[in-house]
Write a structure and sequence with these properties.
By secondary structure, this protein is α/β, with parallel strands linked by helices. The chain is built from 20 helices and 32 strands. It is about 25% helix and about 15% strand. The protein has a 20-stranded parallel beta sheet, covered by helices on one side.
């Protein structure tokens, strides 16, 4: 019967392994088990503790049973997205205490149970979006997930968030909620989370948006709102909230605005004094910039320093206003990006009031030269250091240079991907210009139009056949995707550090192209010329020094002294004497293993069988197993009335006897203390005693010790004297 049972179990195991191997060939002898897109309607049996990543995505699994994952105890990532899961047994994940990533997104879960996650103590990333649950239940499903870092929730049917739904979560790096149809939000529901670095929420309800912002003022750093169609909101976003706020960045993506709401939201956001960055991506503005500037001005200054508008759709962009009256609202702005939004100019009057702006990005818009000339009028953008007008409709390099020359502090200029075609011989540029990007501008050659002040020049993807400019300060030169047949000369660009010449027509190099007076004059350090050799020598030197230190330490017992010092420091913290109730032995016996025959068979028998018997502590018999031997020695000495040293030539050569002696130095050896008993088993020459045991030498020279006599008639007197000393 037993053989039959064993055979059946073995056959079942082999059958499970065969099923697993057939379903997931990649699971064989590997930690990564990829069973995705296999048409499976069950979790294959035979999963073992060696698997750390299990990918079952894009299958037809409907039910996760208790036993399915029971043996996969070392699983770190479990991917179950895009299945048909509607049922999960309560204890299905109980054995997955090491799981860090669980993806149950895009299934058919109609509710969430706290029991599923109760034992997932290591879980950091949880994906639950794209199911069919309408709420998170009455309590928090996540109360046991103390290490959770990212949480993805919601679906098109998700409609309700209640107080207590997020209890147990204190810190999240990312929270993503698909709440396109979220209509009920109990105020305070998100307040239990103390810190959220980045929160993304799909939302259409303006009232819910306002309530969520109020709850997140003190916790979220970056709030990203998607798909919202904002309506005018009269209530304050900071009702009864106390400073300081945490929110630094607010992003609207795929949102829809009106002119009225733009005016109102700017006023409301001024109350959030911590807000520094506003961002709009792929949004629609149903208006032409007719904002309520009078109300905006009366509401005070904005604290926002960075504004980014990317791909803003304005139906009647050609009718957009010049934003007159907004001048007082832009003084503190430091970075402005308006990209892919069909901008064709900024009024001169408005441009003059960007007094603090350092960075301006207008790439992929509709700027032409005459509008650029109006946008960068005299005294406009007075602090600007970086300007990007790439991918516009600029045609004249001479006019473009003339326009930007009005920017006295400009350092970085990107005018790439404009169709200049021609390049003049002379151009006027800002005096401090250091970076110039002229890539993909269809220029056929380079002339002295290029400013001498440059440190970085990018003229990639043009029709250049040669490079003969003299640029004394240039450090980086990008010439990729041109028609060059020879390298630039070294002498005209003496400070060059990096040069890119890929995808040209170079086919040979002359010696002169690699030789230059400046290069010959350079004197590099030994480290620069022979870095590998210097590093190797340094490593070898360090190794030799370590080797010498180890040898010296071994010769002079440095390790012994260090270990002794540590033990001594620990022992010094203890009381000098153990309480009487803790004394367990009459004597702790310190002896060499080579003398064990005399100690254990003669001395111990004589003393422990005496009347009354003595209690002796021997390391072989009485030390606590598993305890550090030094601690055993210290404790044994402290718990003994006396310490009995059996001295011999072997004793003074024993490492552990040295420890025992040394501990006795500061615990027991005192000229007015008789706690130490010395038994001389054989004559010892004084030179045999290590010099560091100077106190032992002194005691042997000044105090009486017992000598073991070889004559039997004198041995009885020896035992009487020893027993008397022990009493």
């Amino acid at each position: 019967w037993r053989v039959w049972a064993f055979y059946m179990v073995l056959a079942a195991n082999l059958s499970e392994e065969q099923v697993l191997k057939q379903a997931c060939p990649s699971c064989d002898a590997t930690q990564l088990c990829n069973c995705s897109s296999k048409g499976l309607d069950f979790i294959p049996p035979g999963l073992t503790g060696k698997i750390t990543v299990l990918n079952l995505a894009h299958n037809r699994i409907k039910h996760i049973r208790s036993q399915d994952l029971q043996q996969a105890v070392n699983l770190r990532a479990l991917l179950l997205q895009f299945n048909e899961i509607s049922l999960i047994d309560m204890d299905s994940f109980h054995s997955l205490g090491k799981l860090e990533l669980l993806d149950l997104s895009n299934n058919s879960l109609a509710h969430l149970s706290p029991a599923w996650f109760g034992h997932l103590f290591s879980l950091q990333h949880l994906h639950l979006q794209g199911n069919s649950y309408r709420d998170l239940g009455k309590n928090s499903p996540f109360s046991s997930l103390r290490n959770l870092s990212s949480l993805y929730l919601g679906n098109p049917q998700f409609s309700t968030i209640r107080q207590g739904n997020f209890e147990g979560i204190e810190l999240l790096d990312k929270l993503w909620i698909d709440g396109g149809n979220l209509s009920q939000y109990e105020p305070g529901s998100l307040k239990s989370i103390k810190q959220i670095n980045h929160m993304i929420i799909n939302l259409r309800n303006t009232n819910v948006f306002s309530a969520i912002v109020r709850d997140l003022l003190h916790s979220v750093t970056w709030l990203e709102v998607r798909e919202i169609k904002l309506k005018v909101e009269k209530k304050s976003l900071v009702q009864n909230s106390t400073l300081p706020f945490r929110i630094r960045k607010l992003t609207f993506k795929d949102a829809s605005f009106t002119d009225d709401y733009i005016s109102r939201i700017i006023i409301l956001l001024k109350e959030i004094t911590s807000l520094q960055e506003l961002e709009s991506i792929d949004c629609v503005l149903e208006g032409t910039g007719q904002w309520n500037t009078r109300e905006l001005v009366s509401s005070g200054q904005s604290f926002v320093e960075k504004v980014s508008v990317i791909n803003m759709m304005i139906q009647n962009f050609h009718m957009f206003s010049d934003l007159a009256g907004m001048e007082s609202q832009i003084h503190k702005l430091k970075r402005l990006t308006i990209a892919s939004s069909r901008v064709f100019m900024v009024s001169c009057n408005l441009a003059k009031h960007f007094s603090s702006l350092l960075y301006l990005d207008f790439h992929n818009n509709l700027l032409v030269n005459n509008r650029l000339n109006e946008t960068i009028c005299e005294d406009a953008w007075p602090s600007l250091q970086t300007l990007n007008v790439s991918q516009n409709s600029l045609k004249s390099l001479k006019q473009t240079a003339s326009s930007v020359s009005r920017l006295p502090k400009l350092i970085n200029l990107d005018i790439s991907q404009n169709k200049f075609g021609e390049i003049p011989d002379v151009c006027e540029w800002p005096k401090n210009l250091k970076y110039l990007n002229l890539s993909s501008t269809q220029i056929p050659k380079l002339t002295t139009c290029i400013p001498l002040t440059l440190e970085v020049l990018d003229v990639s993807a043009n029709n250049l056949r040669e490079f003969g400019l003299q640029l004394p300060f240039l450090r980086e030169l990008y010439l990729a995707k041109n028609q060059l047949k020879t390298l630039p000369g070294a002498a005209p660009i003496p400070n060059l550090v990096a040069m890119s010449v890929r995808r040209n027509k170079l086919n040979s190099f002359s010696r002169e192209e690699f030789e230059g007076a400046q290069v010959a004059a350079v004197h590099l350090s030994l480290m620069e010329c022979h870095r590998s050799l210097v590093v190797s020598l340094a490593c070898a030197l360090v190794f030799v020094v370590i080797l010498v230190l180890v040898a010296v330490g071994y010769k002079y017992h440095a390790v012994w002294y260090l270990r002794m010092t540590w033990a001594w420091l620990q022992a010094k913290r203890k009381p000098k004497r153990a309480p009487p109730k803790d004394i367990c032995y009459d004597a702790f016996v310190s002896y060499s293993e080579n003398d064990s025959d005399w100690v254990e068979n003669i001395m111990v028998r004589e003393l422990e069988q005496a009347c009354p018997p003595f209690r002796l502590c021997l390391h072989k018999r009485d030390f606590v197993p598993g305890k550090w031997i030094v601690d055993n020695i210290i404790d044994s000495i402290e718990k003994s009335h006396k310490t009995l040293f059996v001295l011999s030539e072997h004793f003074v050569q024993s490492e552990w006897c040295k420890y025992e002696l040394d501990f006795s130095h500061f615990r027991l050896f005192d000229e007015n203390n008789d706690a130490a008993i010395l038994v001389l088993l054989e004559p010892i020459q004084s030179k045999a005693i290590p010099k560091r045991f100077c106190k032992l030498r002194k005691i042997m020279n000044t105090k009486t010790y017992l000598e073991w006599p070889l004559e039997e008639e004198q041995q009885e007197m020896f035992w009487e004297n020893l027993k008397g000393a022990l009493k």
